[in-house]
Amino acid sequence: MTDFQFMQKAQPTVALFVSDLHLQASLPRTTAAFLAFLQTHAARTQQLYLLGDIFEYWAGDDDLATPYNQQIADAIQAVHKQGVAIFWIAGNRDFLVGQGFADAAGLVLLDDPHVITLAGRTIALAHGDAQCTDDHAYMAFRAQVRQPAYQQQFLAMPLAQRKAIIEGIRKNSQDANQNKTVEIMDVNAGAIDQLFAQTGTRVLIHGHTHRPALHHLGDGEAQRLRYVLPDWEYDVETPRGGWISLTADGVLHRHGADGAEIG
Ligand code: LP5
Ligand code: MN
């Protein structure tokens, strides 16, 4: 390797983007992989963006009483205390995360979508579920459960009852998804165009679809880049996972489950 190549590689990481970990106590290897990611890669960056579905589900901030949830919050807080700024965009599983969790984890809640300018790049960030507009049943469900009044009513129920209801919705969702095509559950091209137009950006990073990719849309001046994050699952024979990093030279890099860069 020449000195020049070495310098190219040595660019410091300014931000990391990750989503769809679906953390739960019953997935110890996935949990361990996230804790290791926090202590190594995340601790060495300036900003960490958690882009939705970090938890399998979130029933309300009073569920921080569950030791597993507190452990995750503590681990994120530890990275924050090392000087890393941490940001959170809600997913369709954990949109009930509120200021209580944000304070416990030392992170800042952002709206979806959110635009950042960092290392000379302007990037739109989203979970990705709002762009799945062909999935009419989901969009109707989403419109209902994202209403503040509806959420307040739900959060007023005892925690055990909320968890039972969520388990019911999860079952319903799993059954419904078996009858949906892959296309219906992917983002809609028009909704993506609209997001680019609305945010005035040319680069988007999102998750949700579990279809990791880099899509080049359009040509020349009109070119747009859509980065899709992978979901994580380490409690299986062939682990899935990974993240995206932004280095100080303004380059975005895709990383796989073992952290290696994807070409
Ligand atoms: O999550 P995933 O990958 O399975 O599928 C999603 C969409 N499903 C969901 C539901 C979540 O899995 C579970 C929600 C947890 C929320 C926690 C808080 C709940 C608070 C409620 C009040 C404020 O997001 C799925 C999409 C898929 O992504 C791909 O985009 O297709 O959408 C659906 O499955 C929606 C169904 O089509 C319709 C769901 C109707 C639910 C009916 C409720 C039944 C209530 C039973 C109560 C016992
Ligand atoms: Mn999701």
Detailed description of the structure:
The protein has 263 residues and is an alpha/beta fold. It has a single domain (9-258), classed as Purple Acid Phosphatase, chain A, domain 2, CATH 3.60.21. Helix content is 34%, strand content 20%. The protein is built from eight helices and twelve strands. The protein has helices at 3-9, 28-39, 67-81, 99-105, 136-145, 148-155, 159-178, 189-199, and strands at residues 13-18, 47-50, 85-89, 108-110, 114-118, 121-125, 203-206, 213-217, 224-228, 243-247, 252-255, 261-262. The strands form two sheets. It has a seven-stranded mixed sheet with strand order 4-3-2-1-10-11-12, covered by helices on one side. Strand 2, helix 3 and strand 3 form a beta-alpha-beta unit. The radius of gyration is 18 Å and the shape is globular. The mean pLDDT is 96. The site of ligand LP5 has 26 residues, from helix 5, helix 6 and helix 7.
